[in-house]
Amino acid sequence: MSYKDIVNHIDIVTELIAGGIIVAKYTIVDKETCIACGACGAAAPDIYDYDDEGIAYVTLDDNAGVVEVPDILLDDMMDAFEGCPTDSIKVADEPFDGDPTKFE
């Protein structure tokens, strides 16, 4: 992400916060369905990493889904969510409390 992109993103986020539009987002990986394809880590390396077997997890909170994703990483998170071939990346407006199936 370039400096110009970051400044533009900050301006947009500031406008959204001022308008009351920003909603917290949380993410978790369903490790039971993850196939270790690497798509999420490629899309959002600051959010997702892999364990010894290559299964993805959220680095922000050791895959508990309880830490709000920073605004600057939301686009990357959504790219990972949309690019997951097994729908193992979960996103919600509320914490997952360690349960990737909580909102299904």
Automatic annotation (TrEMBL):
Its cofactor is [4Fe-4S] cluster. It comes from Bacillus oleivorans. Ferredoxins are iron-sulfur proteins that transfer electrons in a wide variety of metabolic reactions. SUPFAM superfamilies: 4Fe-4S ferredoxins. Keywords: 4Fe-4S, Electron transport, Iron, Iron-sulfur, Metal-binding, Transport. PANTHER family: FERREDOXIN. The keyword Oxidoreductase does not apply. The keyword Cell inner membrane does not apply. Residues 25-53 form the 4Fe-4S ferredoxin-type domain. InterPro entries: 3Fe4S_ferredoxin (IPR001080), 4Fe4S_Fe-S-bd (IPR017896), ET_Ferredoxin (IPR052395). This is Ferredoxin. GO terms for molecular function: 4 iron, 4 sulfur cluster binding; electron transfer activity; iron ion binding.
